[in-house]
Structure to design on (120 residues):
């Protein structure tokens, strides 16, 4: 069973940066069939995907984070990263990483989430 461990959350001032890592305990079987995503849930709101890496390797970003967030993956370390720069107060949320199998052909894998607070 693949375990997903997240860390690196915390308090950051507006305009600051944070890069919470997400580590998978092992390489996922059929990993080339997955999309890799960061999803956040702000207080009182639904979960929203903010960045993902498609199976083609092409990144996608939500308009609200375009130009400020960068998603990347380290296959050798089985890790997924989200570099968050110029954070805004609306970035306050729990951030989840996810390996998603489009169409549900294979199991999805979620991290437990890491809390980020953007406040002065």
């Amino acid at each position: 069973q693949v375990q997903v461990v997240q860390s690196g959350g915390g308090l950051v001032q507006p305009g600051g940066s944070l890069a919470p890592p997400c580590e998978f305990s092992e390489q996922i079987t059929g990993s080339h069939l997955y999309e890799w995503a960061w999803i956040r849930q702000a207080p009182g709101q639904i979960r929203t995907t903010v960045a993902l890496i498609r199976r083609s390797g092409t990144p996608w970003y939500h308009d609200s984070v375009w130009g400020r967030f960068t998603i990347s993956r380290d296959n050798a370390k089985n890790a997924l990263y989200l570099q968050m720069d110029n954070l805004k107060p609306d970035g306050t949320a729990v951030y989840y990483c996810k390996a998603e199998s489009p169409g549900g052909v294979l199991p999805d894998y979620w991290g437990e989430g890491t809390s980020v607070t953007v406040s002065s």
User: Anything to note?
Assistant: The first strand starts at residue 4 and ends at 6. The chain has a mean pLDDT of 94.
